[in-house]
Amino acid sequence: MSKTVIAALALGAATPCLLAQEAAPPAPARAEAKAPRIAVIDMARVSSESLLGKGYAAQLEALKSEIDAEGTKKQSELQKMDAAVKALQDELDKQGSVLSPEAVEKKRQEIVKKTRDRQAFLEDGQAELQRMRERAQQQAQALNNEFQIKMKPHIESVAKEKGIDILLDGQVTLTVNRDYDISRDVIVKADDAEKAAKAAAGKPPAPKPAVPAPPKPSPSPAPKP
């Protein structure tokens, strides 16, 4: 009998737990997280194909052409100096046996001077070209930053229109489905804005409305005699 009572007490103690578990409402199902929309953009393509990028590319090309022209000019001057030194050396070799020692020494001193001048011109020219390259590099960086700043609103606008949550740089991706590339959309939007800005800049200002002239006062009647 004692075993029966113990079993009954154990069953009675377990029953509230079972009832409590059965009575508890089911936990609400967790809402599934929304998958982010991802896209890529190729800024190199945007830079090379957009009107804005082509404008900056033209400025960079102008900087390069300026440095190349200066380098060609200095190289031409250097060749002239080399030719002058060679001509003096040839004269000394041909006439050295018939010239006086004083004349020979004078020729040698002239060759030494022109050689030193040539070396100084070379060093100064190299330093100047290096300064030009450094300035051009700084200007190129400034132009690139300006391009990025001007292009950013168009990128954000396209991303917002397409509901994009994450935008990746196409140059760091291994393979991309073209459906996820918004480069062309950004180019079109940027070009439309650039064309509109140029049209507004070239449009003559609207004429101001003519201000009507004030009415002339009517002549007062002459006084009666």
- The helicity comes to 55-70%
CATH evolutionary superfamily: Skp domain
Number of domains: 1
Note the run of SSEs as H and E: HEHHHEH
- Radius of gyration, in Å, reads 43 Å
Biggest sheet record? 2 strands, parallel
Strands of the largest sheet, in order across it?
1-2
Q: Work out the oligomeric state of the chains in this entry.
A: single chain
Q: Which structural category fits the helices and strands? A: mainly alpha
Gap between N and C termini = 151 Å
CATH architecture: 2-Layer Sandwich
How confident is the prediction overall: mean pLDDT? Answer: 81
CATH T-level fold name: Protein Binding, DinI Protein, Chain A
Strand residue percentage: under 5%
SSE map:
Layout: H1 2-23, E1 38-41, H2 43-49, H3 51-95, H4 101-161, E2 166-169, H5 183-202
Parallel strand pairs: 1-2
Helix pairs in contact: 2-3, 2-5, 3-4, 4-5
Characteristic terms for this protein:
mainly alpha; Protein Binding, DinI Protein, Chain A; disordered N terminus; two-stranded parallel sheet; 225 residues; elongated
Textual characterization of the structure:
With 225 residues, the protein is mostly helical. The chain has a single domain (36-196), classed as Skp domain (Protein Binding, DinI Protein, Chain A). Helix content is 69%, strand content 4%. The chain contains 5 helices and 2 strands. It has helices spanning 2-23, 43-49, 51-95, 101-161, 183-202, and strands at residues 38-41, 166-169. Strands 1-2 form a two-stranded parallel ribbon. α2 (43-49) packs across α3, α2 (43-49) runs parallel beside α5 and α4 packs across α5 (183-202). The longest helix is centred in the middle third of the chain and has 61 residues, at 101-161. The relative contact order is 0.14.
